[in-house]
Amino acid sequence: MRYCYYLLCYFIAITTVMAKDTMMLLQEYRDQDVAGWVMSEKLDGVRGYWTGKQLLTRQDNPLHPPAYFIEQFPPFAIDGELFSERGKFEEISSITRSSGDKGWHKLKLYVFDVPQAEGNLFQRLQVLQDYLTTHPSPYIEIITQLPIKHKQDIEQFLDQVDKLGGEGIVVRNPNARYVVGRSSQILKLKRYQDEECTVIAHHKGKGQFHNVMGSLTCENHRGTFKIGSGFLLADRANPPAIGSVITYKYRGETAKGKPKFATYWRQRSVSSAVTN
């Protein structure tokens, strides 16, 4: 009996370790030489990993799309982002948390890799393209990868995405294999940085905001700091609860390590608890 108990504990421990990272994750772009790589827009949606039988989140939690959504999905794994359009993250997140048909028709799985296929990125994506030729699905789209010849290409594309209200861009080595966990061969680049913090206090507003929240105090690894901008009037009237986790944008940090120009972005949802 004791042997069985230890065996069970070992199995649980191994399973837990394996579950930590089962998908490819991005590192930050820090002015590396990426000539010869490719780039695409970083879609602000919910990670969707199709195993060949089931659709999972970044945290390996099962999603519950209606049958029509996955009817023509392939019998092999594809990795992508569940997305509709820019600026709709909260709606996308709400749809993916629902069961049954509650807006799934608005979404597509925008695919950026075929994890178990052989070859370089384009060869892997071609496996999916060949499948879709005979099994077309309105809910799968392969993300276009643009070539990078010079650093200026990155800056110009990032400017274009930024003007359209996009989150940022992804640059990657097309000759690299699909790697589970953080990879130096796939990088993200944004005009701003973002982090999460826990709300620990609300502060009443002044002037036009005298009847609603003016700012809130947050806490994370940087310590405590206030955030007073970025809120809609509805957010101020019904602010994120104390103890809730929010995401804020910022541009650099002070000499004391505090975020510069911290601006409220959104409240974290269950399905977006861990991002790329």
Which CATH-level-2 architecture of the largest domain?
2-Layer Sandwich
Q: What is the share of helical residues?
A: 10-25%
Can you tell me the CATH topology of the largest domain?
D-amino Acid Aminotransferase, Chain A, domain 1
CATH class of the largest domain: Alpha Beta
Q: Which range does the strand content fall in?
A: 25-35%
Q: Could you give a short description of this structure?
A:
The chain has helices at 2-20, 67-70, 89-97, 121-134, 151-163, 233-237; strands at residues 24-28, 38-42, 46-50, 55-56, 78-83, 108-113, 140-142, 146-147, 168-172, 181-189, 193-204, 213-220, 223-227, 245-250, 263-267. It is an alpha+beta fold.
Write the layout of secondary structure elements.
Elements lengths: L1 H19 L3 E5 L9 E5 L3 E5 L4 E2 L10 H4 L7 E6 L5 H9 L10 E6 L7 H14 L5 E3 L3 E2 L3 H13 L4 E5 L8 E9 L3 E12 L8 E8 L2 E5 L5 H5 L7 E6 L12 E5 L9
Parallel strand pairs: 1-10, 6-7
Antiparallel strand pairs: 2-8, 2-9, 3-4, 3-5, 5-6, 9-10, 11-12, 11-14, 12-13, 14-15
Describe this structure in words.
There is one protein chain. Helix content is 23%, strand content 30%. The N terminus and C terminus are likely disordered. The protein folds into 2 domains: 164 residues, D-amino Acid Aminotransferase, Chain A, domain 1; 75 residues, Nucleic acid-binding proteins (OB fold (Dihydrolipoamide Acetyltransferase, E2P), Beta Barrel). It has 276 residues and is of the alpha+beta class. The chain has a 5-stranded mixed β-sheet. It has a 5-stranded mixed β-sheet with strand order 4-3-5-6-7. It contains 6 helices and 15 strands.
